[in-house]
Design brief:
This protein is 52% helix and 5% strand. By secondary structure, it is mostly helical. The longest helix has 28 residues, at 136-163. The protein starts with 10 loop residues before the first helix and ends with a helix. Pfam families: F-box-like (PF12937), Transglut_core2 (PF13369).
């Protein structure tokens, strides 16, 4: 029988205590008695520590997907321990590369090969090294250099996947350019992904009935929100060719939120996809638009299609009717772009 004073406390109180403990204290608390050990080893406890301690994760962890599963289906404590071991090994290598130039670049490469699993550690070195530390400049320089290497490797990986015609999202392909100008600041692919999730959730919260709207109305609501928040478009077209407008992370995170039409459409399509709208970019001559497709079961206006409605064959040269696709130009407007306007412009350009 447990002789610890904790044995007399109700489980609810023990759980409340653990909620306020950092990881090291949680491990120590688990040693107090069998009851605290059982509670401290609960998956949800270590899920919380993973979320609180680490912002960045290598893609192979499928961290975002793990968060959607019941806590018991993921070995959270083992996952946390794995990250701690990686931090410890990377920290030893980092201290070693500061001491001597011999094998310095080899050590930097070994750290960079851990990818995003060491990004939190490196950012901690950049931001957490005291100004009065004798090697503050060396620590920040080499930590930023390794971060840059990680970002560039990630960017090249996305472009290689695109070249091989593997699945890669437009915002990832465009965001990969941003990784070449990032150091430690906010705006890498995982930050962009989280920001799109946040924007999509804000749209849902603003309109509780959003999911019941027709696709056409959803498409308009998304564009309206993005333009109201100045997340797409460019109010000052004199700065149209400014270099910053090419970077999707700057459009999302930095004032003013200006971008080129391609980046605006990429933002629109990424948010729309998270809200169940099938939107993709269309390289209309001289200006990128977003094309929104109706689902196979309903028209754009929400009218159910007959069960016998045949899918469009891939070799069908006839243009789809206006119940199947629509066009949006979020860079210029929150309203639908009429097909007649697009056809007129094509005729004016001499395109059949």
């Amino acid at each position: 029988m447990d002789a610890s004073p904790f044995a007399k406390l109700p489980d609810e109180l023990l759980e409340a205590i653990i909620l306020h403990l950092p990881p090291a204290s949680t491990t120590a608390f688990a040693l107090a008695c069998r009851r605290t050990s059982k509670i401290a080893h609960e998956p949800r406890v270590w899920r919380r520590h993973c979320l609180a301690e680490y912002r960045y994760w290598q893609p192979h962890h499928d961290f975002k997907e793990k968060l959607t599963l019941p806590p018991a289906q993921t070995p959270w404590r083992q996952l946390f321990a794995e990250r701690r071991r990686t931090d410890a090994e990377a920290a030893v290598l980092f201290e070693a590369l500061l001491l001597t130039q011999q094998e310095r670049y080899a050590r930097m490469e070994r750290i960079a090969n851990w990818g995003y699993d060491v990004k939190d550690l490196l950012l901690g070195i950049v931001d957490g090294t005291p100004e009065d530390a004798e090697d503050v400049l060396a620590r920040r320089y080499h930590a930023n250099a390794i971060l840059g290497s990680i970002h560039r490797m990630t960017a090249v990986e996305k472009w290689v996947r695109l070249q091989r015609q593997q699945m890669v999202r437009l915002e990832e392909v465009l965001g990969a350019y941003d990784l070449f100008v990032l150091a430690g600041r906010r705006g890498d692919l995982s930050d962009i992904d989280r920001e799109f999730d946040r924007i999509a959730e804000n749209i849902r919260q603003r309109d509780p009935d959003f999911d019941q709207l027709s696709v056409r109305r959803k498409a308009g609501q998304i564009a309206k929100y993005l333009r109201s928040e100045n997340l797409v478009g460019n109010p000052n077209e004199e700065n149209y060719h400014a270099l910053r407008n090419n970077f999707i992370s700057m459009a999302l995170f930095e004032e003013p939120h200006t971008s080129l039409p391609l980046q605006s459409v990429a933002i629109y399509c990424a948010v729309a996809r998270r809200l169940g709208v099938n939107a993709r970019p269309s390289n209309y001559p001289h200006h990128v638009h977003a094309v929104i497709e109706a689902p196979s079961t309903h028209t754009l206006d929400g009218t159910p299609r007959p069960i016998t409605h045949p899918p469009r064959p891939d070799n069908d040269d006839q243009p789809p009717d206006e119940t199947e696709i629509m066009h949006m130009d979020p860079w210029r407007s929150s309203t639908e772009t009429p097909r007649s306007d697009l056809l007129t412009r094509l005729i004016q350009m001499g395109i059949p």
